[in-house]
Amino acid sequence: MGIYDISAMITFITNMRSELLHTYIGHSMGATSFYITASKRPEIAQMVRMMINLAPAVYTNHMQSPIRYLVSYKKELQTLLPVIFSYFPAGASIKTTAHFAQIIESGEFRQYDYGRAKNLVIYNLVELPEYDLANITIPVALFYFDDDKLISSMDLKRLSHVLPNVMDLYQISESKFNHLDFLWANNAPQLVYEKIFQIMREENPNNITSTK
User: Fold this and answer.
1) Which pTM does this prediction carry?
2) Residue 150 contacts residue 68 (beta carbons within 8 Å)
3) What are the residue boundaries of the structural domains of the chain, listed by start?
4) CATH code assigned to 5-201
5) Is 169 in a helix, a strand, or coil?
């Protein structure tokens, strides 16, 4: 998704409108995919003025969700995952799911593990290469809340220290909030979307000038 799908969507939109994409908004793995795009396809990232992340799934060392425990059985679950993720949450490939499991298990944001022999052929390295987040210079706003069982505030703040151009670190104050409430909560418009629109409306001196 990060190499091909996101790149194709951004290219299509910018070509159709003859201007840069104003804002990429990604929730959880939707944000993860863009970081892969920006790391591996920097020319695509330069087509985007800013990025807004809702609980981005990048670092997962402090994850408390039961998903962490399922990762230990990822080999046994391989035959079921294509069926499960073809329906929930919105369709996902087995490779995407396996990559996410790898990130959870390792706690590091590294490229896909094909196995030692194939890794040497593809990456010419013994260790899996990390995605270079320090070179992602577009402005980024990070949304989080303290009791997120999937993406902890500690892991999000780790991400904020790696990225060179964090323009906003926004904490949701609602105590009864969960990872999916960024999308589904009745009060998401007040807690999340109003802040998103505010960020999008504000002029940021670091925004890339439109080509229009």
Assistant:
1) 0.80
2) no
3) 5-201
4) 3.40.50.1820
5) strand
